[in-house]
Specification:
globular, DNA-binding, two-stranded antiparallel ribbon, 7 strands, alpha/beta, 10% strand, 16 helices, 417 residues, disordered N terminus
Length: 417
DNA sequence: CCTCCACCGGAACGTGAGGAGT
DNA sequence: ACTCCTCACGTTCCGGTGGAGG
């Protein structure tokens, strides 16, 4: 047995941990009871009032829920509906809930397949042709089940603003709200207040019959929430209140995003585990914050199209090989053109490349500021974060760009300037 | 104070891919 | 299989701009 095998074995058998139940720090974890949704009593109360019609056997008005990310929109919705379904069934009433996550919903068909496979499950019907690619068949299937149903159907459209095609929402609302008797109740959840602008006015008036705005948590509320989770997740002696307060403060800075605070707790615990320390310290949280930010940027970089990655690489190389004050659109564009020729990729115009740099700036990958160089014109000056070396490697993962890895740059820069 | 650089950024337009309807 | 439509992506055109330098 060599050294490597021993250390790997140690990982499984001897590693100790600051956690006792890490699963409560997972992003998709939902608490069990309504009362577990801390500092949301008032919202829950209003939510229940909007849904009160259910107790009279009527389909409630549609609800539009707004709130920034990490304010507990989806969590409160899940808990309120779970409670509602339970209470209703105790009274012998029929309430069914369909959950659609609109994130990355590309086509209307994909949404219908999602809705109808849930309908199939809820109503216990067999239909092997559910993967139709015809909208009319899906609508007919949905209507036939819904018309036979003697109860209340609630359709939750979560992260509605992240649907790739907003028109899908318009079409869905038109297809499910044209009933003479009862229509399903639609609950739309979004963190984009401007989302309403993208909806047809008729659709909007149907959807936004009741509105629920959820404000971000303040630092104290975040502290309470994190404390409650930490109590379950960590060993008693592994975490101090100071650490929790730092997590709360950082997530309060990030517009009261509770999800961030919970991720920070998890990551900080992992960092303590890495070095087998029995407890989490404040510095672990700061380190965790940096790592989460890098993770986020890396994820974004990985999904960029090849041209954007090439522009990013051009920024990085200009930044690396020239003085920082020369990392300007014109210079970046020259490098970019050289790369395109080298890789036999279409050369975009400087106008377009300028837009791509602006996009990289908006994604938080680079920092592009418009500066005036007087006689030497106006341009964008690009500044990179400290982790640019890391980003370079992720750009090389693109099959078309990997050849640039061994490219000899020094001579190129000399010949240029 | 005026000029002029080097690019910014809005608007209009072209093009190809892909979905919807027939 | 065909046409029509929409949309993302990109180009072309052009007026606008802030401040160093004359």
């Amino acid at each position: 047995m060599n050294d490597d095998e021993i250390s790997i074995e140690n990982m499984w058998t001897q590693s100790k941990s600051v956690f006792v139940n890490k699963s409560v720090l997972k992003v998709n974890y939902t608490p069990k009871k309504l009362s577990d949704a801390l500092h949301r009593e008032e919202i829950i109360n209003r939510y229940q009032r909007y849904l009160i019609d259910v107790s009279r056997g009527l389909s409630p008005n549609n609800i539009f829920v707004y709130g920034k990310s990490g304010t507990g929109k989806s969590l409160v919705t899940k808990l309120v509906l779970k409670d509602l379904v339970q209470v209703a069934s105790q009274r012998g009433m029929n309430v069914k809930v369909i959950n659609i996550n609109c994130e990355n919903l590309r086509t209307e068909n994909a949404m219908w397949i999602d809705i109808n496979s849930q309908m199939q499950e809820l109503f216990n019907v067999e239909n092997s042709h559910i993967l139709w690619n015809s909208r009319s068949k899906h609508v007919a299937f949905f209507q036939s089940l819904f018309n036979k149903y003697n109860g209340i159907l609630i359709i939750v459209l979560d992260e509605i603003d992240k649907a790739v095609d907003y028109n899908i929402i318009n079409k869905l609302v038109r297809s499910v709200s044209d009933y003479n008797n009862q229509s399903p109740c639609l609950i739309c959840i979004t963190n984009d207040v401007k989302f309403q602008n993208y909806l047809e006015s008729h659709v909007l008036s149907v959807l936004a019959q009741n509105e629920l705005q959820i404000d971000p948590y303040n630092a104290e509320e975040l502290c309470d929430i994190l404390r409650a989770r930490a109590r379950i997740a960590f060993k008693n002696e592994s975490i101090t209140d100071i650490v929790i307060q730092v997590c709360a403060a950082l997530s309060a800075q990030s517009y009261g995003d509770a999800r961030l605070g919970i991720s920070l707790l998890a990551k900080a615990g992992e960092i303590a585990d890495e070095i087998s320390r029995d407890y989490v310290i404040e510095n672990d949280v700061r380190l965790a914050n940096e790592r989460l930010e890098i993770d986020r940027i890396v994820e974004v970089v990985k999904t960029l199209p090849t041209q954007s990655k090439l522009v990013l690489l051009s920024c990085i190389y200009t930044y690396e090989h020239m003085s920082k004050r020369e990392c300007l659109t014109g210079n970046i564009y020259n490098i970019y053109k050289k790369f395109c020729i080298e890789l036999d990729i279409d050369i975009l115009t400087q106008r377009r490349v300028s837009d791509l740099i602006t996009e990289l700036d908006m994604l938080g990958i680079v920092n592009a500021v418009v500066v005036s160089k007087g006689r030497h014109g106006r341009t964008k000056e690009v500044v990179l974060d400290t982790n640019w070396r890391l980003l370079k490697n992720y750009c090389f993962e693109d099959s078309r760009l990997k050849f640039l890895k061994d490219f000899k740059y020094t001579s190129m820069f000399k010949s240029f300037f």
